[in-house]
Amino acid sequence: MASLQECLKKHFGFDSFRSKLQEDVVKAVIKGDRDVFVCMPTGAGKSLCYQLPAMMSKGITLVISPLIALIQDQVDHLRELNIPACSINSKLPAGERRMIFADLESQSPKLKLLYITPEMVASPSFQPCLTSLCSRQLLSLLAVDEAHCVSQWGHDFRPDYLKLGRLRKRLPGVACVALTATAPQKVQKDIGDSLQLRSVLSYTTPVFRSNLYYDVIFREPLEDPYAHLHVFVKQALSLGAGAKGQGCGIVYCRTRDNCETVAYQLTRLGVLSKAYHAGLKAGDRSEVQSDWMQGKVLVIVATISFGMGVDKANVRFVAHWNLAKSLASYYQESGRAGRDGLPSSCRTYYSPKDKEQMAFLIRKEVASKQKKRGAQKEADKAGFTDFEAMVSFCEQESCRHATISKFFGNAVPNCSKACDYCRDPKAVRAQLEKGNHLSTRIAAAQSQGGAFGFDRDLYAGGRKGYGFERHDEEGDEEGSGDEDPSLRKKEFGNLFKKQMNLSKEDFVLPDEDCLLREASSRKVPRLTVKAREHCLSLLQGALNDHQGAEKTFNGDVDSLAVDMEYEVFKSSKSSNLYKAGVLKKVRELGGFTSASHVYSLKRKRVGAGLRGSSDPFQTARQLLQASGGDAGPPAGTDGGGFYPDASGGSRELPVTETAARDPAGGPSQTGPAPSKKQQKIQEAAKTSRNISLYFQKKALVAGETEDTGSAETERDIPPAEADPGINDNSGSPAESVAVGSFSRTDEVGEDFRPEELEQEQLGGKADPDTEPRAEYVKTHLKMNRKHFQLNGWVSGAVGADPPPPAKRSREPPPPQDPGSRRRVTFNPQVQESLLEVANEPPKPATLKEVADIVVHCLDPLYKQGKFATKELFKSFARHLSHLLAEGRSRGRGQVKAEAKALIRKFFGGVKRCESEADWRLLRAPSGASASDEKGSNVAM
Ligand SMILES: Nc1ncnc2c1ncn2[C@@H]1O[C@H](COP(=O)(O)OP(=O)(O)OP(=O)(O)O)[C@@H](O)[C@H]1O
Ligand SMILES: [Zn+2]
């Protein structure tokens, strides 16, 4: 029999093991007399720990992996190496499936590795196969990848992983290897218990990485946080005067908007940075990633969706602009720095507001988990405790490395001034004291419950614990389409009536964990905390339904709810006004939509990820027909310099006693290049033709060329045939806007917004380009009409025939023009409220709104041929929007005036825009009104 080394070379093309630890694990697994637990960082080569033994054993290795996409990566990779690997999954065409089963049932199956999800392994259809393999002793090893998913304490808990315990019982003679990159102590214990690991050999890499310098900066007290970040980036990348600079960096943000803004600001300050998030088209995303990988872009500003599988050695810093959701994830994300072993920095910008928002999101996530699987208190605490650990990391006066090591059950390391506390404890204290109001709150909260007042009983109570039932989420759960909208209206109305009947003295102070801003303010007469919380939950639900795309945590959208509520609260003088304001926002977001809308989004979302993609397992046929391919020797990977301190060792301890783990771990995704299927997933999530697309990539740098993939973005805009009114600007880069604009003024009323179309797209709307287009438009119109009717909870016109369409205009309606809402007969009280809203000082325009305005203003000029290319038009629109949105709060009217003024100014200087350099000198308006501007050579 060939030696271990020979097999390593023959099958995988590696000359040696990546580390002693890897070699030890492989040997232990091959020996097979004990179960093995492996905790090694991402990219350290865990897969080989079962793949090599699989190739050296007689039978088949069953690999459990949580995601089809991850499985596909692995299977693809193995096939490239000419290794017989396959997966059985629900997406497999019947023919392929039959062939795989036939092979498994044959006397000597060709397959060596069979990848399967925990759901599939527990499914009745797989049982006969499993039994047959067992009874013929053809199962040589059970490998459980991403084993932390088994733990309710782990952030990626997957209930189906719990079924593996039962599976284990059915395979008494088969050794098991459990692998993870993320395992705090209690997770390790769970893994051992749940998988019923026996006499476990534990192999782990210590978490401490001496080359990483950790620090925490309180963001709020900073005068100019972006400038602060910029200084940090320059230092980390050695970009000082005269210095050549080295390496690159990652800034993590929670929201897409933050990504865009931070990237813009850093670029503006001189460090070329690009945003990376799920709102970008797949092509743009891989371009950004590849530019960053190649060093063309120094800083990637990303949501957490970036980084899995990215294996770049010279990341000199990882900064968190927003708080990570747990210490485990923070460690994992920050651990992407310094993989070459050179000194690197990990910084968190901490903000109490961030903390509140994150707590809010976690609570929401927990509530939704509870809704799905019933109360599981222990599990639900995990999110909070892990988050509390993250907060403590930021707020404690102690060594950051020590905090991390303890969290993962390691001994306290010798930090040697590799953190801000060990370097300068006084400065850390001073910073904490500066955030004094914060500490006071924490102290109060801690005296009641956990840090931040996470009253566990309350959380365990789920949505009820939140104060009252949140019907806004019920429809989603049922997905049945038979939800009665009047219930919502009634609930809302009753609540208000009840709350408003309370006397002043009845004002109930907010709970400690109340997320409302200025929660105890009595500014609005008769508006109670409870009513505000209810409104917050409505906004939150609407935002979630509206946005829906970024799956990782979905934090992006939900966190806005708190701000939105506060915005309405701040600007409301009466509770009626407040109520109208909230409803308006909910409606704008497409809230109170019919359950059928909710259903359609759900369906599409599933479709986006899993349906309609080219079958990733097509090559199974070839494989089983032994055509194999001629992959030749595998691409070797240089293993050098990876985690210089990644030493570890085997200890003959039960997992429960193990102290250990990884640097930089995380849910795995092998290979940096996104797989075909992942690209499919990304693509489905991308196709936003909303105006926000104009902002979703680069373009922040003057002189930078624009990708032409935008044509793709627009290809699936519903065509004009559905209604001639849509047609009037076909071919224009702003056609997406036109669809929305048309719709607003069409019979469905002014509520049909381009954002809704975007939502459909982001939510993975069943390919509009395969759906008959007229049907597509019709569906939207119908849906919107229903939504509008539901919104008309005070309307006498619900169900009434729509009046003839208003004159079509390509301009959006004035933002708060009550007259434009002609279709619904409002209850006078609310009508009055809306009028009051209209008289309120203008709301500050969001970047999206600014963009919308800018494109509307620019579109005619594009049509007049004032831009050499469509890309220039878009790039200019982005630039202008950022200029106008930059740090200033003005209403839409003012923004529009300023936009027009700037455009006039610009075209006062150039006849036709030929290059990005043309607008290099264009500056944000300094309060000059449109009428002040002169010299325009364009009519607007
Ligand atoms: N002995 C080795 N020599 C060189 N390269 C290796 C060796 N073992 C593994 N690798 C390579 O290291 C890379 C990372 O390996 P792998 O994907 O198994 O990491 P992992 O620990 O499973 O990470 P994750 O946590 O993402 O699952 C792969 O490209 C793999 O081919
Ligand atoms: Zn320290």
Word description of this protein:
- Its EC number is 5.6.2.4.
- Pfam families: DEAD, Helicase_C, RecQ5, RecQ_Zn_bind, SRI.
- The structure is a single chain.
- The protein is globular.
- 52% of the residues are buried.
- Strands 3-4-2-5-6-1-7-14 form an eight-stranded mixed beta sheet.
- Strand 10, helix 12 and strand 11 form a beta-alpha-beta unit.
- It contains 37 helices and 14 strands.
- The model is unreliable at 441-493, 499-505, 548-555, 593-840 and 927-940 (pLDDT under 50).
- Helix content is 45%, strand content 7%.
- By secondary structure, the chain is of the alpha/beta class.
- Helix 24 (529-547) crosses helix 25 and helix 25 runs antiparallel to helix 26.
- It binds adenosine-5'-triphosphate and zinc ion.
User: What small molecules accompany the polymer chains?
Assistant: adenosine-5'-triphosphate, zinc ion
| Total number of helices | 37
Q: Helix/strand-derived class? A: alpha/beta
State the total count of DSSP E strands: 14
Runs in which pLDDT lies below 50 for 5 or more consecutive residues are 441-493, 499-505, 548-555, 593-840, 927-940
Tell me the major beta sheet: 8 strands, mixed
Reading side by side through the largest sheet, how are the strands ordered? 3-4-2-5-6-1-7-14
- Over the alpha carbons, how many angstroms does the gyration radius reach? 29 Å
CA distance, first residue to last residue: 82 Å
Identify the overall geometry: globular
Binned, the helix content reads 40-55%
Mean pLDDT: 67
Strand content: 5-15%
